[in-house]
Amino acid sequence: MSPAKAFQTILLLMMIAVVLDAVARRLRLPSASVLVLAGIVLAFVPGLPDVEFDPDFVMVLFLPPLLLSGAYFTVWPDFRANLRIILQLAVGAVVVTTLLVGVVTHFFFPALPWAACFALGAIISPPDAVAARAVLDHLNVPPRIAVLLEGESLINDASGLVLFRFAVAAALTGTFSAGAAAGSFVYVSVVGVGIGLALGWICASVAGRLTDARLTVVWTFLSAWAAYLLADSLHLSGVLATVACGLVLGRLQHQAMNAAARVQARAVWSVVTFVMEALVFVLVGLALRGVLHRFAADWGTLLSLLPMAAAIFAVLVLARFAWIFPTAYIPRALIPSLRARDPYPPAAVPLVMSWAGMRGVVSLAAALSLPDQFPGRDIILFVTFCVVAATIVALGLTLGPVARTLAGKEFLLRGVETLSEEAVRVEIARAEFDAIRMHSLGANGEHAHPRLVEQYGHRLSAAEEHALAKESHGERRLQHYRAVLIAVEAGRRKLLELFNSGRIHDSVMHRLEAELDREELFAARVVEVTESA
Fold it and tell me: What count of other Cβ atoms lies within 10 Å of the Cβ of residue 403?
């Protein structure tokens, strides 16, 4: 395929993805599941150009920015407070699933070497960060569950890929040392995290010295690839390095970046991650075409592999249940101090977390990266595709109804008490009022800016009133900002009327429109938060 044809194909896929995402949102379905189904349908459409991707290129292109995006917006205190459970999922669940899948694979294909069976297990054992975030975006789950699932998906790719490398080396060389593998696992993980933390601090320092918001945003993208490629070139965990870099950048953004850079970064990252995630899920579905070509459309062989794929899919789901439910209750039962700090969760919590085990493009890329001479390569590739598609479609489409079992159930960690949003608003309003009052007060005792003093004094009074009577003031606040939205809409209509009549210059139009946009976004956000509270 020529570069021009490839570009046209990518544009076509993006147009399809935009339409399907809009349809999925209208039908309240996970976009990931709908896009994968669409990709599978496109794989059977005759006449469409083949879409084949190099697995190493896909890993380098998509994985670093998507990982850094997830880590960047992760709340570090919540991540750290839940690190015990995250590591249980990201390491323990991956190891157990790898072993169980390896045993089941060997049962169906006794002639396949054990190392190749465990390679398949390592490929499909880690749930995918992109799939998890894409599905969670459409669900109203408790914040702590979102932290656990997103934290798990950020780290478990590293453990899965490390196990995968060991299994591939064992299958190709015929030798394997459990002690050496464990030591190597610790080394590549710890040193990879160290490199990511150092790069995150360096990149945040450089971002703080960039005065142009556009350069800052570009720099954050370069930081993702720098962390991944540097660690990978040193044969360390590029995944963990990227995640560590993203966590540091997200933590230091408030000091390192100015307001313009933060606002622009959020907007750009939101668009880029949407484009990448949409392409990833469509490519997952289109990968079926390449699988069919490898088997030369030998439907007899493919149908004979379906029972094995179905069994492994069942093992993946059941293994996650078998790991999450005991680890959710046994440690709390054995350790009273842990139970006091982190009480038993409702049964709906491990149920939802067990169900949220979607696999994704990382598994497909790992399967495609197997050498041609690897034992059972085509079988592994077909089973991997079936499992990835089944988890995204079947689990993704049904996770919503399962998540509704959480309605009204709390899942909280009893940690350090923090100020409520209302109390913080009071402190901010008081600091603003004190600052403007001191700045306005002249030597003669009169205020140079009496209107500002009055305005900020009103804000302080409103914040204090809201903190004391949240419910009653919440309704007043809601009505206030709904009125603001009505006023902004009227102002926008007048601005457009003046612009269309040629009475204002384009530059004036853009400036005033930007001010109205900011005012509307803030008011709309307040209305959204107040209505959902």
Answer: 22
